């Protein structure tokens, strides 16, 4: 009787035995910093990793895919911040909304403006409306909608179309969440403006404007 090992499909020739995607992304970020965002090529990344260009292309078809993957993992950190705050809404929807607004603003400022390369990548991704950016915005809208629904369920927030309210809040919060607006305003202005939006949006949502 043959062992299980003898019937396993052999690894395809030339295919990496381990997933090196994260290593590739880390290396690409370092090269962007060293060589320049626009100047770095796929060949540069492969050479730095000591791998063939063919193996690199098995993980990422082009530079754009690498850039989108880098942007995605940064944006997911901010998404996690948003949802961590939003999940506290059943306990206290007002507090959840406040922390969501402030912490997303702070995380965006900290992560996307931690270096020139991420800043440049952020500008390109936003200007070109990459699918990763659209998906990220949808996640933020979803977190806001969750807070609204939980606030309405508890009776603290007035009834209303949660989707419409989340969309309206997202538009208002672009003033402190959008990378271009963060860049245009100083840290002090951002904190003050975000605190003002917390007050404004909470008062608009609370039942009977209590």
Supply the helix-strand structural class: mainly alpha
Helix and strand sequence: HHHHHHHHHHH
Q: Ranges with pLDDT <50 over ≥5 residues? A: 1-17
Q: Please summarize the sheet with the most strands.
A: none
Task: Give the overall average pLDDT.
Answer: 86
Which SSEs are present, and which pair or pack?
Layout (H helix, E strand, L loop, with lengths): L3 H4 L13 H15 L6 H8 L3 H7 L3 H24 L6 H20 L3 H12 L3 H24 L7 H16 L1 H6 L2 H19 L5
Give a written overview of the molecule.
This protein is an all-alpha fold and 210 residues long. The chain has helices at 4-7, 21-35, 42-49, 53-59, 63-86, 93-112, 116-127, 131-154, 162-177, 179-184, 187-205. The chain contains eleven helices and no strands. α5 (63-86) packs parallel to α8. The termini are far apart. The model is unreliable at 1-17 (pLDDT under 50).
